[in-house]
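Weekly modeling sync, notes
Attendees: S.R. (lead), two postdocs, one rotation student

Agenda item 3: backlog of single-chain predictions. S.R. asked that every request posted to the team notebook include the full sequence so nobody has to chase files. The rotation student volunteered to paste the first one in as an example of the format we agreed on. Action items at the bottom.

Example entry:
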Amino acid sequence: MGLIIGLGLSTGWSCSNEGQSQTSGGRNRGRDVIAPVAVSVVASQDLARRVTLAGPVEPIRIVEVNSRTAGSINTVRVVEGDRVRSGQRLAELDARETEAQLGRARAVHYNAETAFRRSEQLAASGIVTNAELEQARASYETARSDVTLWETRLDFTRILAPTGGMVTAKYVEAGSAVSTNQRLFDIADDTLLVIRVQMSELDVVHVRRGDTVQIELDAYPGSQFDGTVRRIFPSATAQTRLVPVEVALAPTSGDRAPRVGFLARVHFSIERRRDVLAVPASALGAGASGTFVYLVEADTLIRRFITTGLTSEGMVEVAAGLEGGELVVTSPQLNLQPGAQVRVSGNTETPSEIDSIGSATGLR
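Predicted structure, as returned to the notebook:
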């Protein structure tokens, strides 16, 4: 809570009794100057250091769809942005020659199988020798293998989606000539969206898998999304000495759902401190002997040296030197002096709080 007090600053000359003033040249002299200052109650709270890192929203994986054979693209069935299911046909190569070879192989296979079955019957009657039977069997097996070969090559002319997701890139058009293993499409498996950020080794040691984080997207100002630390890479990159951390976005639907490529800002709360004494950073002063604050005790300003800890969003942990319920001055420390007399100002937005504190501390 914030309170306003008045600080009595002593002038360089003696003051007259209350209600009297010394005058010279028509101007008042010798009166105390009252300067309002704000105070805050030392209280326990939870603190955490906040680290914000930016990175793009990415799918959990991107699958490259490559051509399994050389040929000419006959038909392209999808474009960027289309959603596909696993096994869906994306494109087709010109398969006329392959289909003709398959038909020929099936005919040869039929003749070879017929000859082999006949040889089996004749061999049972002793009309053909075992060598002739084995030769017929070999011809039949070869013909069957040729059918399998051309069926496989025909299957290679059909470009199928290896996984479900969204088509993010298309590199060919109908009529394009492609070679074996040429990249044709990219499919993003967006069943899970992640953000991969680079974190300092000084911060990553405080992060654990499963930690919850808050995420903001530049595309939707003011919106917040939940996330979870999914993976912390085992080592830092050699060039930057930063450790990659992967954050998974919680599933979201609707018009403001995250999309692949959006810039995200991930807020990590690390070095958590629970139920510790804290004061506003504006209450701290620095001197040759260390960090100090000004306290209001009874009607007097007291300087107290303290030991500080974690700083978080304008609040500073007090490791030693203060107790809960004490009042610290949060106004600028320029004119504050130990031993100065103070009084509670009436200009405050929380008079009930000031009255209760005044009763406890003797400030009236």
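Discussion: group reviewed the output briefly. The domain at 2-42+284-361 is CATH 2.40.420.20 (conserved putative lor/sdh protein from methanococcus maripaludis s2 fold).
Action items: rotation student to repeat for the remaining queue; S.R. to check formatting next week.
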